[in-house]
Design goal:
This protein folds into two domains: 122 residues, PAS domain (Beta-Lactamase, 2-Layer Sandwich); 162 residues, P-loop containing nucleotide triphosphate hydrolases (Rossmann fold, 3-Layer(aba) Sandwich). The chain is built from eleven helices and twelve strands. Strands 9-8-7-10-11-6-12 form a seven-stranded parallel sheet. The chain has a five-stranded antiparallel sheet with strand order 2-1-5-4-3, sandwiched between helices. A hairpin with a 2-residue loop joins strand 4 and strand 5. The longest helix has 28 residues.
């Protein structure tokens, strides 16, 4: 019995050893970097081979250091708290972060973290994907769109052509800028023609259309713009219906509104695009507007 027990223990040891070797091979074979860390202390307990390539650190350099120290803008302390804080997302969600390599290079990464219990110990599994090249291509595309449209972050522009204004707005939305679209006409026709998110469209009118939020007056319009700018940085706002606003509230009131919002847009690196029939303006009114915003005529 004693010998069988001893033999059984040896077989169990061998089985666990084989299982551990298989796990290690699978873990290191993963193409994306994975870090295992203690939830309470934030100390890295294990990492796979892909993590060495991403960070340029060796395994011995990574084990035992704070996970938060590998990322920009992270606080020391509980890895769970710091991960949730600097990623700005909950467990299981994917977020963007900036990782710092051994040589000081910053790499854009997509990150997902999960928590689990192992031998009565709460740990964090952090999975990363290097998206630096993708991010660089996206930034290049943004620069190309800015150059083609003649815009810089913070610009407020009045277009003499509605079609050109709408096309510029659509191109900025296509490069994934947060957007707010305020239309004075039929929003459904606008959505059918231009590739814009339905949820970003508001109706500048006194009567509602099913499925769309209504901004019935200048005060509500101002509050909606402020809410958008407070949530998003470097967004784009399309404001259709300047002629309607001027005829309802007068040029001076609308001019003060544009002047006020122009400074808010500058602060948030956001765009305000406004289509308008320029013939509706007097020379004096046009000169006033030109002192605050860009005016682009024609097609």
């Amino acid at each position: 019995m004693a010998q069988l027990g001893k033999l059984g223990f040896q077989k169990g040891d061998k089985a666990r050893l084989c299982s551990g070797v298989k796990y290690r091979k699978l873990f290191d074979a993963l193409a994306d970097p994975v870090f295992i860390a203690d939830y309470d202390t934030g100390v890295i307990l294990d990492c796979n081979a892909a993590s060495f390539e991403l960070t340029s650190f060796s395994k011995t350099e990574l084990i035992g250091v704070k996970l938060a120290s590998l990322f920009c803008g992270t606080a020391e302390g509980s890895v769970g708290g710091s991960v949730e804080r600097f990623l700005g997302c909950e467990e299981g969600q994917v977020a963007n972060a900036m990782l710092i390599t051994k040589g000081g290079e910053k790499k854009a990464v997509a990150v997902r973290f999960d928590t689990l219990m192992f031998k009565r110990r709460k740990i964090v599994q952090l999975m990363l994907k290097d998206v630096t090249e993708k991010r660089n291509l996206e930034e290049l595309l943004v620069k190309v769109v800015y150059k083609l449209s003649g815009l810089s972050p913070g610009d407020s522009v009045i277009y003499g052509s509605h079609e050109r204004c709408f096309n510029v707005y659509e191109s900025l939305v296509c490069i994934k800028l947060p957007s707010l679209c305020i239309v004075h006409g039929d929003p459904q026709k606008f959505i059918a023609k231009y590739d814009v998110p339905v949820g970003s469209v508001r109706l500048l009118a006194s009567k509602s259309i099913k499925g769309f939020s209504v901004l019935p007056n200048l005060q509500e319009l101002s509050l909606e713009l402020s809410r958008f700018l407070n949530v998003y940085k470097r967004g784009v706002v399309l404001l259709d219906g300047l002629e309607h606003l001027i005829s309802t509230y007068g040029f001076e009131t609308v001019y003060q509104f544009i002047q006020e919002k122009h400074f808010d847009l500058l602060e948030h690196d956001s765009f305000l695009l406004m289509p308008m029939n320029l013939d509706a303006l007097s020379k004096v009114e046009r000169a006033y507007l030109a002192s605050e915003v860009k005016i682009i005529e024609g097609n």
